[in-house]
Design brief:
By secondary structure, the protein is mainly α. The chain has 10 helices and no strands. The chain is about 65% helix and about 0% strand. Helix 6 runs parallel beside helix 8 and helix 7 runs antiparallel to helix 8.
């Protein structure tokens, strides 16, 4: 059954476990306005709608749309698709992008969830490879130009592979990604949007 915006605000509020007073406090909107919106006496719009959406951890589109479905399983899949970096680094970006692209307009909160996962995975890739390059050039600042590129690359990789520091630091990056993914799976199951503490807003 499709819900109108007034009913959706109430539905999202109850799912977050907020009373009308709590929603009013978090959104910085008067409780009288919240009550009128939920009764359908006034239509939420403009700045008030944005504040309510932020307080309820959703988008204004989700509060206005009546044809989107809720699917926590799909949102969980978007989040967990990020750990496909374990197979290949770029899969950690590609799979979330594909899921986000095809589901962002069909599932409630798929747009925000997808963007946050993608932003984090891109950030993680940049930080990881930047760190790797810094370690390479700090540890081996002199490039033997009399070597062929392939010979030099093989030599560097073999030296890096023997470095315990590099192994442990790489493990740290991978575990950080995995732990944040698990943390956000729990948030999705609790009907909250994913939250990444290290992320640049690319989307």
């Amino acid at each position: 059954m499709n819900l109108n915006p007034s009913e959706k605000i109430k539905e999202f509020r109850l799912k977050r476990g907020f009373s009308q007073e709590q929603l009013a406090e978090i959104s910085n909107i008067s409780i009288r306005t919240i009550q009128r919106m939920e009764k359908g006496e006034t239509r939420p719009k403009g700045d008030s709608l944005k504040k309510i959406a932020m307080a309820l951890e959703t988008t204004t589109e989700n509060l206005l749309e009546t044809d989107k479905k809720e699917d926590l399983g799909l949102l969980s899949l978007i989040v967990i698709s990020g750990i496909s970096y374990l197979i290949h680094p770029f899969l950690g970006i590609l799979l979330p992008v594909l899921l986000w692209f095809f589901k962002k307009n069909k599932i409630i909160n798929a747009d925000l969830t997808g963007k946050r996962v993608i932003n984090f995975q891109i950030t993680w890739q940049i930080l990881f490879f930047t760190y790797f390059v810094i370690i390479v050039y700090n540890g081996y600042p002199y490039i033997p130009y009399n070597y062929g590129i392939s010979d030099w690359t093989i030599e560097i990789i073999s030296k890096l592979n023997s470095s315990n520091f590099l192994k442990y630091s790489t493990l740290f990056f991978y575990l950080l990604n995995l732990l944040l993914t698990l943390y956000n799976l729990i948030r999705i199951r609790n009907e909250k949007l994913p939250k990444y503490f290290i992320s640049f807003p690319f989307l």
